[in-house]
Each structure stands twice: as structure tokens, then as C-alpha cells.
Amino acid sequence: MLSKPQVTIAIPTCNRGAILQQVCEALLHQSVSAETFSLLIIDNNSTDDTPQRMAEMAKQFPHFIYCVEKKAGSSHARNAAWQHCETPWIAYLDDDAKPFPGYVEALLRAIARGGCEVIAGKVVPWRLQPLPSWFCDEYEFYAPAADADGYLNAKDFAIGGNMALKCEAIRRAGGFDPRFGVKGTVIPYGEETVLQIGIRKHGGRIRYAADMQVAHLAKSSRYTIKTLLKIAYLSGKSTPIIYNWHGAKEFFRLCLKIPYRLGKAIATSIRCSIQRTYAWQNCVITIAGEVCHLWGMFTGFFWLRKHGKSVLPRSS
Fold first, then answer.
1. Residue 180: pLDDT band by 50, 70, 90 thresholds?
2. CA neighbor of 40 nearest in space, from 76, 85, 94, 89
3. Nearest residue to 194 (alpha-carbon basis) of 170, 207, 176
4. Cys-Cys link to 238, which of 189, 223, 265, 312 (CB 3.0-4.6 A)?
5. How far apart are CA 156 and CA 150, in angstroms?
6. Which parts of the chain fold into alpha helices (H)?
7. How do residues 184-232 score in pLDDT, each as one tens digit?
8. Alpha-carbon distance 289 to 267, whole Å?
9. Mean pLDDT of the chain
């Protein structure tokens, strides 16, 4: 008789059948039995061979659920996942984030420890594709600062590609806001941050589990200077909207950020160039990326002032 799963691992996906299969196979080779978790695949309108590949994977997992979410967008897919979840906790993985062999064991240990509603995991690069010589691991690295008990400070959040949440906490916060995230109508980022802001407003806490690790695919198509600068701009634009920055005080704070952040970027580039850890491309990305990020923040600020509260996150 199969034991009841202790947690659900949800993977929203769209047209990444081959890489998703590798992620699923990594979940078959964990340090704990596959009976301890349920694998939930949310297919967000794939047109490749994802259904066929997942039909084969389903034969290898004791607890496997495959759902199709017709509404396009990362928030819709994430909402479908927790609404189909049959365990108190749900862990989200990107469909190109391969878990380490001890991932599930670390996840279960963090859940058993208690004292939080969100668990943030660690992300390192997955070097599967050819990458430019100037690629730095820091571009695909995530490990938030935490206190002695592992709690994140108010400015840090779990990253969407490796996080676990209590389903009840998601429900109380209203779920993932579909206006945010991939295919969102406001910005293509931030749905997980908006949700965690809401969870914190209900008294929830976020704890970091350093040994809950995944390797996120470093896509060769992403690592061009043009693409990274565009990402920096969009990330900057999302910040005022997510945090509801539209007043005079916030504008003053944005202005103060200009010399500090640019000075820090320039100093980092000089130091790393002297140490020979940066190529000229890294310097351009660091300095011009900061310019684009700041430009995006001011764009988002004035865009929010124009559109008003109708575009604010539900958690605001």
C-alpha cells in the first residue's frame, strides 16, 4: 500500500518537454522515496511532445497528476497547481530547474521544522547549453541573506523557481495575481513577490533552506548583452508597481538611488577587472544594466502615477 505524500511538487510548463523530462528524472533519483511526494505537472497549453513524455513519466511515479491549464500565463498555471494540490504544502519548481539529489529530503526537513509559511531554496547555474566565455555563475545564482534562524529580512523573498508555500497561506493572500508574471497584463515579472507580500501582511514568515537546491538552466539565448539589459529594465520597471511607489517620498528615494547604485556598479566593475574576474562584457552588463534598471524604475514610477490604483497588486 502506498504511503500518503507529505508534499506536492508542482511544475508549470509550456513547450519544454525534453528539459522537463530531465527535471522529472532528477526527482526519481532523490535521497528519499518518491512515495513521500506527489508530482503535479501543470501544462499551460504545450504544443510539443510534453503530453507524451509526461504519460511515460507518470508510470514511474507513485503519485503523479497531470493537468492542463488553458488560461495562458505563469500566475494562472501556479494558481491551478495549488487549487489541485491535495497536501498542506506545495513546492514550485521551474520546468528548467533540476533539483539536487537531496532536494526533497531538505524540503521535508524544512517543512517539519515549522515556523514559516514560505520556504526559499537555493539556485545555482545548470550549464547544459554552450555559454559565452564571459558568463558568470552569479547571473544564475540565488541565496538570500537570512538571520540565525533562517528567516529572510523584509526586503528578501523566495524566488519562484524554487520555493515552497503552505496552501492555506496562498489562499488567504488571494493566490497569484494573474496581472503579474509571464503573460501578465501589467508586468511580466513579480507574481511570486506580490503573493509573498500578501502572505507577510497576514503574519506569514519566509525561511531559507540552503540545502534545498536546484540547478537552473542557463539558456544561451538569454546571455547576450541586449537581452540582459532588457531584463534589467523590465525588472526595474516592476519594482515601483509591486511596492506601490508613486508618491513624492518614493520619488525622492529613487533619485537618491542613482549615485549610490551607479557608484557601486562602477566600483564593482573596476575591482573585478583588476582581479581579472570580469571581461569587458561583464563591465558593460554591470554598469549599463544598472542604468537600465534605474531607468525602468523611473518608468514604472510614472506609469503607476498615470494609471493609479487600478494596476496595484491586490496585496497593496
1. confident
2. 85
3. 176
4. 189
5. 12
6. 17-28, 50-58, 74-84, 103-113, 167-172, 191-201, 225-243, 248-274, 280-307
7. 666 677 899 999 999 999 999 999 999 999 999 999 999 999 999 999 9
8. 14
9. 93
User: In the block, which residue shows the cell 496585496?
Assistant: 315
DSSP 256: H
CA–CA separation, 141 and 261 (whole Å):
20
How many of the other CB atoms lie within 10 Å of CB of 114? 7
The pTM (predicted TM-score) of the whole model is: 0.93
C-alpha cell belonging to residue 34: 518518491
Neighbouring-strand partners of residue 11: 41
Q: What is the enclosing helix (H) or strand (E) of 162?
A: strand 162-166
pLDDT class of 310 with cuts at 50, 70, 90 = low
Nearest to 89 by CA among 113, 72, 66, 69: 113
Cell of 228: 540582459
253: its cell numbers: 528615494
